[in-house]
Every structure is written in C-alpha cells, then in structure tokens.
Design a protein that fits this description.
The protein is of the alpha/beta class. It has one domain: Spore Coat Polysaccharide Biosynthesis Protein SpsA, Chain A. The chain contains 7 helices and 7 strands. Strands 3, 4, 5, 6 and 7 form a 5-stranded mixed sheet that branches. The protein has a two-stranded parallel ribbon with strand order 1-2. The longest helix has 18 residues, at 159-176. The relative contact order is 0.17.
Length: 178
C-alpha cells in the first residue's frame, strides 16, 4: 500500500521531494521503500506525532511538509496537488483534510479516528500539511479542508476497509473497459 502513496507523491507536480518515516520496528516498510526513489528517515518509534516531529527536526525541514498516512491507496498526484493549492490559498501554517463520516460509510469504511469540527465529528483522513519551522510550537493554526472524495474517504485500517478499497478499484477498472 505504501508504494501507491509514494507513486501519488511522485505524480504530484507540487511535491519536490518524498520522504518515508519508518522505525526499526517496521522492517518490511524499510525493505519496500528501498526499491523506490524516496529518502528514508528513521525515527525512534515513539508514536505518530513524536516520530513526525523527530523526522522534521532531524531532517531540518524548515518549510511546509505534507504528511500522508501510508494506508491511503487511492491517492493521486492530482488530488495531492489540489490539497497543496488549497493550503497555499488559505495562508495558514497548517492544513488538515477531514472526511464526512457518511462519505466513509458510503464506501464501506468505518472511520477509526474522529475529529470534532464546528459541532460535528469527521473522519481524520491522514492527510495534513504542517509548517516545519513551527513543529515545536504545538498545534498550529490550521485550515480545515472537508473532502468527500474517494481518495481520502477510503483509509485502510481494517480488513473490511481493505475489502472496500479492493472493491472500489475493481469497479473503477471495470468501468474503464466499458
């Protein structure tokens, strides 16, 4: 699945470099990413946010950093470019992409991580932008992009989510043959 995410970053016109953050606890990830043109940043494995912070600091990334969970197999370079454009237009140090819960369920996915925004819960997509210069300042002022696009609605966390992604890809492939 991580290869699909990497392919999306390579296809994006607005992404200049791709990095993968991994730990010694993820040897299969390290093996898989050694086959593609990305820079690998090894972290201590203290949790998502701590590892992200460590990766940004250790690599001296003093600019906006797009972070993507590796469990989003439907991402495209085009969609990533749209998110990045939205970020620059918003003019805030951070951006998070949230998905209406109904959009996830429409595709057979049950969100595992929710985020309250303006009185309503949304699914966390796993797609964010943070300003590397402000990574030690705690939560950054952020733009919230609500998206019901399939690219972010299908985030694979369970076997059922994987089945939903596979079904979507089969249907999309079948439609191309029509």
């Amino acid at each position: 699945m991580i290869r699909w995410v990497i392919e999306a970053t390579i296809a994006a016109e607005r992404i200049s470099e791709a990095y993968v953050v991994a730990t010694k606890r993820t040897p299969k990830t390290l093996e898989e990413v050694s086959k593609v043109p990305v820079k690998v940043i090894k972290t201590d494995g203290k949790g998502y946010h701590m590892d992200l912070q460590q990766a940004i600091l250790d690599s001296n990334l003093k600019y906006p950093v797009l972070t993507i969970s590796a469990d989003m197999p439907l991402l495209t370079g085009e969609y990533l470019d749209q998110v990045i454009s939205h970020y620059w237009k918003a003019g805030k140090p951070a951006l998070t992409v949230l998905v209406p819960i109904e959009a996830c369920r429409r595709h057979g996915v049950d969100p595992t991580s929710l985020y309250p925004f303006e009185g309503k819960n949304y699914a966390v997509s796993g797609l964010n932008i943070v300003d590397g210069r402000k990574i030690l300042e705690g939560e950054q002022e952020q733009e919230v992009l609500i998206s019901d696009r399939t690219e972010v609605a299908i985030n694979v966390n369970t076997k059922r989510d994987l089945e939903a992604a596979e079904k979507y890809l089969r249907e999309k492939t079948d439609m191309k043959g029509v």
